[in-house]
Input
Amino acid sequence: QSYCHRLQHDMYFLTSTSRLNEQVVDKIVLQLNRVYPQILTNEEAEKFRNPKASLHTRLSDLLKHLQKKGDRHCQEFYRALQINAEQLFNDLPSRKILKTPDPTEIDTDKEQYMLNDRGPVFFLACFSVAAGLALFWYCCNSETRVIGRARRILGFSPIIIGRHVRNICMLYLEDMSRN
Output
């Protein structure tokens, strides 16, 4: 959406009573007068800062003038509005339209939790399958020749610790059980 269309959409919101006060409008006009490239000439800036005219009239004339000048001028107005009245800039109706998500776009926040919506029963089932496979692998492995309590104590060691550490622990437990 072009900035001119956005400004046309936001015009009623901006010109409604007590949205922008006189000081903020003056700051915006001065910024548009001093920014490079110069958006408002000195004569235009004086016209839009004239305290004899009502604020509503000056602001309406300014917005219409910027729309006639083109998209670049409207974009600079939005930049000046963001700098001088950030809260009002964030509350603009056109900004709210821009913030609404596209239904075809992937929502990364929602996607982040997509895998975690299974619940505790799913977790317990997966954990049980993994523990069962580890126990089956451990008991059917012909390398492990461990007796008695050592085998029962370190029954789930393939899950937690590596093969070399497991063998050292089992030898230590066998020596302890002999003594």
Summary: Residues 106-114 have pLDDT under 50 and may be disordered. The domain at 3-97 is CATH 1.10.533.10 (Death Domain, Fas).
